[in-house]
Amino acid sequence: MTPAGPRSRNSTGRRVAVVGAGSWGTSFAKILGDAGSEVVMWARRPELAQEISIAKRNSDYLPGINLPLSVTATPDLAEAVSGASLVFLAVPSQSLRGQLPAIESSLNGDAALVSLMKGVERGTNLRMSQVIEETLDYDPDRIAVVSGPNLALEIAQEQPTAAVASSRSLELAKTVAMASATPYFKTFVNVDVIGTEFGGVLKNLIALAIGIVDGVGYGENTKASIITRGLVEMTDFAVAFGAEPPTLQGLAGLGDLIATCQSPLSRNNTAGRLLGQGYNLDDVVAQMNQTAEGIASVRPVLALAQSRGVSMPIVEQVNMVLEGTLSPQNLAPHLTTEDGVPQPESSDILPQEAPEETRGLRRLWNTLKGM
Ligand SMILES: NC(=O)C1=CN([C@@H]2O[C@H](COP(=O)(O)OP(=O)(O)OC[C@H]3O[C@@H](n4cnc5c(N)ncnc54)[C@H](O)[C@@H]3O)[C@@H](O)[C@H]2O)C=CC1
Ligand SMILES: O=C(CO)COP(=O)(O)O
């Protein structure tokens, strides 16, 4: 698909910042610019900041994509953040904590922080919104997250996509959704930050599993079994931490799971495939020049699961493949318990109380059940 030319929208007069000029930070900056904001990105490397500001391109991460004129970049974090009413964070999850003090010192008093990241912090096992809240002692009503089936390149190409903005404050979730509303990007809202954030983290782990079996050469039955049982693991885990089950059946759970497990654009899927092909973890990390968040999140997620007694057999096996203690050929969706006794399958995948985004699906489901 050919990338569309730059849009020229009416300016809303809103000034926003995007911290991180990788693939998602740059795509999101384009969304925000197309939606009418003046966007200043922070890029680590001055030469990349210059390319974004002058050539309106980020050839390292999104070659061939034209950015709106309203998007500029700077290597100076204070310059990027000061004056912004919304600050979107798109750096690798493990690096966020280290960046926050510098961000805080330049923040507008009433600025909201919006995490675009999909990882859990090693050592603390915290979600990114929790890292922000804890590190900066920030009011949760001024923290939001955005998640969903959002492969950066497809969105930069303006392929129609939906996402979820979530905050304890519905007002802030709506502000974020409106700031990112373009003809190709539609954002729903909810107040289930835990479910929305964990959906994005957990699907990365299932995508690693899918990549691994793909690399081994297993086909669609194996993958469908892992995706379906993976969704059960994701839901059990997130609900144990207070998530609403419908969130996991929506865009931030099932939606992102499908996109990430199906797409060769996914770095987690790609990393898994290389492991399945027989490369070891060090080789895979060296081979990838972008962030595959799932690799760092496996252990924190397993530690959290253990703390609440949640069973995650697929994620356990992914961890064993990463550690080199399980051969990729032996990764399976664990359809029985360890002693071989078949488990009952929970089949009510669709919840009774569906969120707005899955209401049509619920109607279809009820129709099918009544047939
Ligand atoms: N790429 C995608 O399709 C999507 C990514 N995300 C999430 O967005 C977050 C960022 O991902 P991407 O933009 O894809 O990653 P990326 O690997 O494309 O870019 C990361 C950016 O952060 C910078 N960076 C790397 N290490 C850093 C460090 N130690 N300190 C500060 N900056 C550092 C890099 O220079 C780069 O600009 C991740 O949590 C990812 O899960 C979420 C949705 C879609
Ligand atoms: O989160 C994503 C799509 O929603 C991107 O997935 P990867 O990080 O695996 O590329």
TrEMBL record:
Pfam families: NAD_Gly3P_dh_C, NAD_Gly3P_dh_N. It comes from the Bacteria. This is Glycerol-3-phosphate dehydrogenase [NAD(P)+]. The active site is at K203 (proton acceptor). Belongs to the NAD-dependent glycerol-3-phosphate dehydrogenase family. It comes from Klugiella xanthotipulae. Residues 330-357 are annotated as: Disordered. It catalyses: sn-glycerol 3-phosphate + NADP(+) = dihydroxyacetone phosphate + NADPH + H(+); sn-glycerol 3-phosphate + NAD(+) = dihydroxyacetone phosphate + NADH + H(+). It is found in: Cytoplasm. Gene3D superfamilies: N-(1-d-carboxylethyl)-l-norvaline Dehydrogenase, domain 2, NAD(P)-binding Rossmann-like Domain. NADPH binds at S23, W24, R44, R45, Y61, K118, A152, R267, E293. Its EC number is 1.1.1.94. Pathway: Membrane lipid metabolism; glycerophospholipid metabolism. Signal peptide: none annotated. Sn-glycerol 3-phosphate binds at K118, G148, K203, D256, S266, R267, N268. GO terms for cellular component: cytosol. Residues 16-171 form the Glycerol-3-phosphate dehydrogenase NAD-dependent N-terminal domain.
